[in-house]
Amino acid sequence: EKEPTPLSDHTQLAPSSLDRLVRRCLEKDPDARLQNARDAMHELKWIAANPTEVSAQSQEPETSKKRTGLKVWQVAMAVALVALLAERFLLPQLFPPKAVDSPIQPMVRAMIDLPEGHRLAGWASPTVAISDDGSTIAFVTQSESVPANQLWVRDLGASESKLVPESISAEGPTFSPDGKWVLFAVGVSGTKPQGVTRGLKKYSLETGLTQEVCDTRDFFGASWGKDGTIIYADQLPKGLWQVNAAGGTGNNFLKAAKVQEKSYSSLAWPQLLDVPNKSLVRLQGGSAFLRLGILNLESGAFSDLNIRATATAPISKNRLAYVDPKGTLLVAPLNTATESVSQSGIAVDRDISIAGAGAAVFAVAKNGTAIFSRGAVRGNRRNLRQLKIVKDKASITLPLEPNYFTGMAASPDGEFFATVLDGKIRVTELKGLTETVLPLGKVEGPMALRWSPDGKWLAFRGMDGGTTLDVFVIAVDGSSEPRRIFKAPSEAAPRSWFQSSRELLVHDFALDGKRLRLFRVPFDGEPTEVNIEPLADARLSPDGSVLLYLERQGTRPALVMRSFPDLGPKVRVLPGDDWRAVWSRDGSKVFAFGSEEAVEVDITREPFLAASQPRSILTNPGSYVWPHLSADGFGGFYVMEDVPGSGIVTQLEIITNWADNMPTFD
């Protein structure tokens, strides 16, 4: 019943401040007593911060301790309690343990099968995406039954993928920061069914429903910010756009990036950083093609990282993973404060797939899980192909080894063949297989080859350091470098030669992005626009008297023709708007390739312009890409064919703990 005497009466070196703790532990009044270990911890912290002198009582003679009324077992329990609390709560505060890095977990590889009968789409960049927490992936496929792109999502803990509704002709999936939504584009390129309109959509993983976000003319990547703003690249070259994730109208908020004294408006593949108003972005124009840098979204200033990249992923410990144009995967140190990479990247893998528009099939989650595919992907310009002549439903393979051809054209006499390989134009004499590489000078990215009727010139589109795709001509004997004959406001391509071999018909995207324009472009002189309704894929007959083109105006799109240059009444050749058409060498037939079959149509001019009923010449021509005019005497047409079995990607590779196992930098 007595009050306990001070602890210092029983142990000489006990500090007087400890008396208070023991008294409160043994206090009779419940309201005054310490209630729990947390209260005791606070007292111990106070003692550590306010050390006291040894109590006066501890200096008294030992005989004075006889005054105690405290039982020995009570003192022992109090001291034990204090020691326990000190060890549990006080000592870790006074002497915290040294931090020990947790061991790096090994990488775990897995292969994810795509849905049965589906292969990875080659023109849907970015083709794959992964949520920040690494739990869910999204990918775009094609199949023989559905040639148009389709978007799928898969929880990595589940056994099956889910088809995203309203995703026909989808491309470019990207996740919201919380992983609950997938953003994607539809209708901007490739095969699309009638009725699909261009735009951005978002799919909810919680409800399974798809909603519209905004309209768009084209699409070159997007990034979903934590504040709900989506940054995306629309039609090139128009800078970057933004829209609220809830939906609305896109705003072209940044017209161009400032690179020293130049401005670049062809911006693509934005990737927001964890730094306010900064994004990784790649330039898409001229000699700057695929040049990677950090873009200030407020000022437009572009800090060049001196890297050419086809895919990028900022990863932990201030590092950047990226894929170069040859498919090599590298890791480099990234300093977002100084907006620089301090040393060259270290190669960590190779043969990563490159898909459409020069974008690799590669992504990394914030938790370090990586997803990618390897090798060629069918459906884009970078695939293993062989060259053929198709005639009377049979084909002859040209004596050229299969390669990654991205363009071709035959000479009028059929003795020479021009191809685009590794960014160079190569002219091959077919009998002796001798090859000439044409001198392109500063021009890069040649595409859309067209051989002149007199056999002396090749027309093509390319870039010479600017931000637009222009039209050039070059002598096939390699005697001179290219000459630009059409400077495009945005993106142009040669379509047909006039019989004189001194004038071209050229397509150009109007700056408003709403239609293709058609121009007559002479070697010497100013271009003149051909006033015609919205069209696509215009082709002039060999004698220059008939213009063939796709009409996409109204509700009944069709392949039509009109007399030229007077633009007489339209004559319908074939219904639908997915035809790729070419003239026979003598102009008596049109060969047209659709998604399900290829047909030929006889064309007569007397007593009036008319087209016969189509005759099927090929079924399922999907493996043939970019048909071209035939040479005299063959009566057929040239095609590039994907080598059977090549580019068929039916699995994706997943690696957990990937980022943790990559090289680090001091």
Automatic annotation (TrEMBL):
Belongs to the TolB family. InterPro entries: 6-blade_b-propeller_TolB-like, WD40. It comes from the Bacteria. Gene3D superfamilies: TolB, C-terminal domain. Pfam families: PD40. PANTHER family: PROTEIN TOLB (PTHR36842:SF1), PROTEIN TOLB HOMOLOG (PTHR36842). This is Protein kinase domain-containing protein.
